Amino acid sequence: MKCRRATDLTDRYLDGRLESKTRDLLKAHYASCSRCSSRLIADNSLIEAFGQDRYTSEIPLDFTQRVMEKVFELEADRLKDRRVHDLQDHAAIFKRLGFSMLLSAAVMLFCMHIPSINDRNVSRFVNAEAGAFVQRTMQLTDSIYEMNHRIKDIFRNFNNTVEKFKEV
Amino acid sequence: MTDEAIIEEVRRGNTHIFSELVGRYKDKIYHMAYRFTNDPGEAQDISQEVFINVFRNLHLYNGTAKFSTWIYRICYNCCVDWNRKKPKGVRTGKEEDRAQFAGTGGDPEESCINRQRNEALRKAVNGLKEKYRTIIILFHYQGLSYEEIAEIMKLPIKTVETRLYRGRNLLRDCMHKYENGGERYEMQTSYRFDG
Q: Which residue from A114, B61, B105, B141 lies 20 to 30 Å from A130 (Cα-Cα)?
């Protein structure tokens, strides 16, 4: 293995991500190459430095309590929203139900009264026409009667005229 | 009780048991947020926001990924949002809140050297571009695997590898300069080290 390849593989080696065969080859190279083995030690010192960097900033003791207070608040809001939503749902259902019932009642009433409505309409229609017919007939009768009187008058006048002619 | 079992119980209405989940993950989430913000107050706010978002969106968790991956993803998103909203400026944290190295040995001089070194490392990490910094934090400070990081950040594993190695190389350069007494490496957001 060449040094360049060994350098490329160093990080993977330090993280334990090499296959056993490659790891063995790399180990053999480190054993024989002082430059690469020194670089390995230097590279590893950074990894060790991370491990040594322990902070002392600690999370507050009441952290869990504070989180749970907010969680319970959230849950209470969620329950309230759900109740409002449920009420709105129920109101919508009742509205629909009420409308359906009204519509059904209207349809039922309509169906129940269809025959009587039809008869009345027909009789109204018939009555109206009959009335008109009678009126027209009466008017005609009057006209004929009047004509009859006139004809009688005309004949009477003719007869009178003939009698007078005879006297002359 | 597994995380999934707790989630199932919470979905059934047993909200109290959610505190169990908070207890399990609060430290990891807080430390991740702290690494991003370097401010305990901001880290607390982000951590709270993470758990509230988890509770709000529990119905969306379908169990295809581990719960830890899912909560880390929520935390990552919150940190990215925080980073976008925060005013631009030096991101080194407040002087009085800066984390102190907990000395491992009894030698005060060694502790002091280690503390300074850690501070230099932290500054160097803070100075990285977000795409490298996030992966460095998730891998080295949170101990997540490549696969978990890929799932959290929605990246191919190869990209995670590349960015991690690139970030490390940049950090090595910084630490090399620091250790060899080169110019003091003062990280400021205006001087984003990208290499």
A: A114
